């Protein structure tokens, strides 16, 4: 799915201005007057980023942020406000907003922040895709291979894993090699990263 910049602001003039600026540099933009309108069409697989006002009629930008998190929507959010409330900015950033801009914002600043947010979205999508593929591959590991992976995630060496499992060093090496082949990884660092990523699945 291609990336879209979702602008949520009750001021029509703001929506039009942001759309023109971003459209001129090639971004796809969709505007919504309220958070409720956006939530009515929002899906978990949406890609891109959100630009939203903090203070809007009905659901505020901060409440929208909470609702998106509850729904499992991970779109990066850029907050805008004409009030410059520091406490709102701090609260939004603590909850995961990627940026906070004060109106009026310059075209150059807007474009820069949007492109940063879209780059962040691409990175998160790549990580999620990699995690999903690894989780699919974990199903092919044997119970003993999963145990070895779990110990790797804990930082154990092959020797320590062998002692913990009551098996030989060479047997641990065999299980470790088998797990790496099934997970399609080739280095100890990748194995450690995969193990940490999949630790919840491994311990179920």
Automatic annotation (TrEMBL):
4-aspartylphosphate found at: 53
Any Pfam family hit: Response_reg
Keywords: DNA-binding, Phosphoprotein, Transcription, Transcription regulation, Two-component regulatory system
Residues covered by the Response regulatory domain: 4-118
CDD domains: LuxR_C_like, REC_FixJ
Entry's Gene Ontology BP terms: phosphorelay signal transduction system; regulation of DNA-templated transcription
A GO molecular-function descriptor: DNA binding
Residue ranges constituting the HTH luxR-type domain according to the UniProt record: 134-199
InterPro entries, per database record: CheY-like_superfamily, Sig_transdc_resp-reg_C-effctor, Sig_transdc_resp-reg_receiver, Tscrpt_reg_LuxR_C, WalR-like, WH-like_DNA-bd_sf
PANTHER family, per database record: TWO-COMPONENT RESPONSE REGULATOR
Name this polypeptide is given: LuxR family transcriptional regulator
Upper taxonomic lineage: Bacteria, Pseudomonadati, Pseudomonadota, Gammaproteobacteria, Candidatus Tenderiales
């Amino acid at each position: 799915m291609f990336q879209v910049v979702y602008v949520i602001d009750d001021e029509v003039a703001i929506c039009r201005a942001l759309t023109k600026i971003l459209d001129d540099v090639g971004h796809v933009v969709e505007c919504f007057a309220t958070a409720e309108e956006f939530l009515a069409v929002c899906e978990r697989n949406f890609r891109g980023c959100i630009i939203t006002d903090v203070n809007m009629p009905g659901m505020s930008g901060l409440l929208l942020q909470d609702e998106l998190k509850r729904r499992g929507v991970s779109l990066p959010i850029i907050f805008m406000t004409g009030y410059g409330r520091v406490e709102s900015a701090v609260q939004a950033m603590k909850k995961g907003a990627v940026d906070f801009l004060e109106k009026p914002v310059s075209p150059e600043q807007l474009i820069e922040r949007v492109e940063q947010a879209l780059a962040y979205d691409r990175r998160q999508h790549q990580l999620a895709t990699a995690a999903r593929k690894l989780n699919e591959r974990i199903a092919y590991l044997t119970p003993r291979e999963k145990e070895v992976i779990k110990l790797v995630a804990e930082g154990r060496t092959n020797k320590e894993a062998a002692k913990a499992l009551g098996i030989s060093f060479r047997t641990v090496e065999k299980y470790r090699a088998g797990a790496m082949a099934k997970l399609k990884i080739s280095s100890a660092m990748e194995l450690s990263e995969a193990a940490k990523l999949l630790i919840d699945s491994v311990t179920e």
